[in-house]
């Protein structure tokens, strides 16, 4: 099995709206209580957008069936999902038949220590990237155990390279490793044990 | 040292705007490409909000100094931060002198497997909660190693309890454990090794 590593860009609607929502997220964290903007006006405008979306969207169960249609990459996940404003989003390219990578620069919404990426965000990015590497290598599953080691602080506002490689497949056990580098130095590394099991997709 | 476990609510502005942004995030993931809403109009309105915030906000360096002022809980992190739309946000209460917990129900933006919490999101929530437990117990630091075990899938749309407890402090090494439960069953558990080190706060 090969998978499409790119969740693709839809020129119309949703991707542009989600990209704009990412700008709002970043601007709100940057604003905090230091802004001159009228925050109750901002709240009203955002609530109006949410109201308009809610009143024209399908029931959640229908959307779940829709988002899980097909067998390729989904578009809604919180790491690479073009339809998820929480996702940076990562955009993967193949390095070889078992290895993938993505580049990303993270801003204030992903902060842990001052000016650094939150350790849990690094774990989130790595868990997902390991899973995508498994799909790319042809044997995937759900995470059973993830170990993340923090070698040095991971900077915000600088290009990061996130890499993952499937190491072995032994029956249903899949082992995969990955790392986050900044300026050529490894900041975070991860080892994952995955079990070849596929929860049913909603129908 | 004791810390204020609650990052507090500011009745005015920013918290309300951020809460509205969370509604937008959720509504966008629910809408996807199944909505009848005019998504280029939605994109325009969100970009206008981002433009207004950007033009009335301080330079990032000034905001960094502001958000790290004082020694208590910060308000901007991606897990408990009232000022961060990415955060669910968790709201912690003390269980005993070394243990804290939070309840949360997660929606579509946090999805991994169908109708389940993304494994990396569980890692993010646990890493942060372990860190807050360390602060509460009186000895905190940065994550050196985090091991996360996935026992069963963690459901979306159901109340979860996220708990963390500081187990030991040995010189600069701090060990902390935590778990995520749904309906009384452990879905995910974590062990963290933290090093008592505090990156400088921006001045």
Automatic annotation (TrEMBL), chains A, B:
Please state what class of enzyme this protein is: hydrolase
Instruction: Tell me the InterPro entries matching this sequence.
Output: HotDog_dom_sf (IPR029069), RHA1_ro05818_N (IPR048654), THEM4/THEM5_acyl-CoA_thioest (IPR052365), Thioestr_dom (IPR006683)
Q: Does the keyword Repressor apply?
A: no
Q: What is its EC number?
A: 3.1.2.2
Top-rank taxon, per record:
Bacteria
For this record, an example GO cellular component is: membrane
Localization in the cell: Cell projection, Ruffle membrane; Cytoplasm; Membrane
Report the residue ranges that make up the RHA1-ro05818 N-terminal helical domain in this protein.
Answer: 5-62
Identify the CDD domains for this entry.
PaaI_thioesterase
Q: According to its UniProt record, which reaction does this protein catalyse?
A: hexadecanoyl-CoA + H2O = hexadecanoate + CoA + H(+); (5Z,8Z,11Z,14Z)-eicosatetraenoyl-CoA + H2O = (5Z,8Z,11Z,14Z)-eicosatetraenoate + CoA + H(+); decanoyl-CoA + H2O = decanoate + CoA + H(+); octanoyl-CoA + H2O = octanoate + CoA + H(+)
Molecular-function annotations in GO? hydrolase activity
UniProt keyword list: Apoptosis, Cell membrane, Cell projection, Cytoplasm, Fatty acid metabolism, Hydrolase, Lipid metabolism, Membrane, Transit peptide
What topology does it adopt in the membrane? Answer: Peripheral membrane protein
Major localisation: membrane
Which residues does the UniProt record annotate as the domain Thioesterase? 117-186
Q: Which GO terms describe its biological process?
A: fatty acid metabolic process
Return the similarity comment.
Belongs to the THEM4/THEM5 thioesterase family.
Protein name, entry field: Acyl-coenzyme A thioesterase THEM4
| Annotated organism of origin | Actinomadura bangladeshensis
């Amino acid at each position: 099995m090969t998978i499409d590593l790119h969740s693709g860009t839809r020129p119309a609607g949703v991707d542009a709206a989600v990209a704009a929502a990412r700008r709002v997220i970043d601007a709100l964290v940057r604003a905090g209580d230091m802004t001159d903007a009228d925050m109750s006006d901002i709240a009203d405008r955002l609530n109006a957008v949410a109201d308009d979306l809610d009143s024209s969207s399908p029931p959640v169960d229908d959307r779940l069936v829709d988002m899980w249609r097909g067998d390729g990459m989904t578009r809604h996940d919180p790491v690479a999902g073009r339809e998820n404003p929480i996702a940076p989003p990562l955009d993967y390219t193949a390095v070889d038949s078992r290895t993938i990578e993505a580049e990303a620069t993270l801003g204030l919404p992903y902060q842990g220590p001052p000016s650094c990426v939150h350790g849990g965000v690094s774990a989130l990015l790595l868990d997902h990237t390991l899973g995508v590497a498994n799909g790319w290598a042809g044997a995937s599953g759900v995470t059973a155990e993830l170990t993340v080691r923090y070698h040095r602080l991971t900077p915000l506002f600088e290009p990061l390279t996130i890499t993952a490689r499937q190491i072995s497949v032994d029956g249903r056990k899949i082992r995969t490793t990955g790392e986050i580098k900044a300026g050529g130095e490894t900041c975070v590394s991860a080892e994952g044990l995955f079990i070849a099991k596929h929860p049913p997709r909603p129908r």
